[in-house]
Write a structure and sequence with these properties.
single chain, alpha/beta, Endonuclease, Chain A, 3 domains, 15-stranded mixed beta sheet, two-stranded parallel ribbon, 19 helices, 19% strand, globular
């Protein structure tokens, strides 16, 4: 009988195969035991099986939604410290259900957000459809600040109009105003490594980064959870929020070939501005201190004055702060709307539940328009989004692709009763992973104003012809449907 010999390469190959399948079985059982949505579980199983070792590493780093216990504990403790003030705002400015339209009432009843504040009255709101107008207003507001300026942004990049904001912060700090800037460590890494941050700190502006990311930190926390919020508060009485990062679109990412970013921001006065202030300052406290007593510096002892009559609802969301609330509120909105629904979003990867809700609403006669940019800066999301178009078009939903740049505005208008804007994209990352903030307005005039902006987006868009879309090349369908398999984890 001939002797059987094994070469070292053959032995190593066998061990690698055995190790791969041990990992597949182990992680496969963990994924199954987590009982997450079927699409998410299947997508991760596909990655772990088909991309040996690398897929397992990806799952260990970003496959499960977890934050350090210390961070969660700090947020819980800080929120408890200010629970009385939050309750006071809700009681003093709460809008009763019978004062709202039926559609708004359905959303207001679902106010299970982390701050437990439903719709509150006494507000005024102004919309900005260009970054230049908004930046000028921000600079003017900072120059008038007497107590504090707090800013939170996902992306901050110096240059152009942003330099004017930075100079205004330096002037404010010079006259004794407390100035604080918080930026996401991943989204603003260029700013954090640049000269501007040094100049701001030398002038007395406090600058911190939130959710630091790095290889070593990945061993202790999921590093792709980002703070995607955009909030500015001045003297605890005026606030800005919306989709705009602290960048000048005339300079920002022009080499990407998607055009200028197009955003919408809201300037808010009244009790809702104080809620935005609390949201921002809770984020600040979580990043900067372990002492719950220091959260008392939130300025909550200041009185709140009425600025108008618009009912607004501020809804923060995040992994430990009502991670599903925006998704569920949008589902309620889609199932309740009766006549007209317009949505604009740069990134569209709906959950199965949202896709079903949209098609069902269209089939019962609701006129629905989805506006997305023709070009976006993510190749995977671009293809995954298009995989959903045929289902939407078959249901009678109008899809418009904006040609005037990268439409970054995240807006919703429903009938003449509800308007929503904020930082939430219509994708699973915004719904379940990132820290976001949304602003709901239950006012016909605000709906009219926001719908006017949406109408401008539609005018600069190309409508997708359903019959032409069905005839698109087979290779396009294969690529789009193939990438869609990964949509639960994009």
């Amino acid at each position: 009988m001939p002797e059987t010999t094994f070469s070292i390469p053959t032995l190593l190959a066998g061990l690698m195969v055995a190790l791969h399948w041990m990992i597949v079985i182990g992680l496969g059982l963990r994924i199954i035991l987590k009982r997450r949505p079927t699409g998410v579980s299947l997508a991760w199983l596909l990655v772990v099986v088909t991309v040996p070792f690398v897929g397992a590493v990806l799952y260990l780093f970003v496959g499960e939604l977890w934050l350090p216990r210390r961070r969660i504990g700090r947020y819980t403790a800080f929120k408890e410290v200010i629970s009385d003030q939050i309750e006071h705002i809700d009681e003093a400015w709460d809008i009763k259900g019978d004062q709202l339209s039926i559609l708004a009432r359905s959303l207001n009843a679902q106010a299970n957000n982390p701050l437990k504040i439903s719709a509150i009255g006494g507000n005024a709101i102004e919309l900005f459809d260009t970054s230049t107008r908004c930046m000028c207003s921000i600079v003017d507001e900072i120059d008038k600040a007497q107590l504090s300026v707090s800013m939170l942004f996902y992306i901050w990049e110096s240059g152009g109009d942003v330099d004017d904001v930075e100079r205004a912060l330096i002037r404010a700090a010079g006259r004794g105003v407390v100035c604080r800037v918080m930026v996401d460590s991943a989204g603003s890494k260029r700013f954090l490594r640049g000269n501007s941050v040094c100049e701001l700190r030398q002038a007395g502006v406090e600058v911190v980064d939130t959710l630091p990311a790095g290889i070593l930190r990945a061993l202790f926390a999921r590093i792709d959870i980002r703070n995607h919020r955009k909030i500015i508060t001045i003297d605890h009485r005026v606030a800005y929020t919306g989709s705009m990062n602290m960048v000048d679109p005339r300079l920002f990412r022009l080499k990407k070939g998607v055009g200028r970013w197009v955003d919408v921001m809201a300037r808010v006065q009244g009790p809702a501005a104080r809620v935005l202030d609390i949201t921002l300052r809770l984020d600040w406290a979580v990043e900067s201190t372990d002492d719950p007593r220091e959260v008392g510096a939130l300025g909550l002892d200041l009185s709140i004055e009425s600025a108008g009559e618009i009912p607004l609802q501020v809804v923060p969301s995040g992994p430990d702060q009502g991670p599903q609330i925006i998704h569920d509120m949008l589902l309620t909105l889609i199932y309740t709307v009766q006549r007209r629904l317009i949505l604009t979003t740069p990134y569209f990867i709906p959950s199965e539940a949202m896709l079903t809700a949209l098609t069902a609403a269209a089939k019962r006669g609701v006129c629905i328009t989805l506006v997305v940019p023709k070009k976006i800066d993510s190749i995977l999301v671009r293809h995954a989004s298009k995989a959903y178009f045929e289902d939407l078009l078959d249901a009678g939903i109008e899809i418009c692709t904006y040609t005037g740049g990268l439409l970054h505005a995240k807006t919703v208008t429903a009938d003449d009763e509800v308007a929503m804007l904020g930082t939430v994209n219509m994708d699973k990352r915004s719904f379940w992973i990132n820290f976001e903030v949304s602003l709901f307005a239950y006012d016909e005039q605000v709906v009219t104003d926001l719908r006017r902006l949406q109408g401008g987006y539609i005018e600069k868009s190309e409508r997708i012809d359903p019959s032409a879309w069905r005839r698109r090349p087979v290779i396009s369908r294969i690529v789009q449907n193939g990438v869609q398999l990964l949509s639960p984890i994009l």
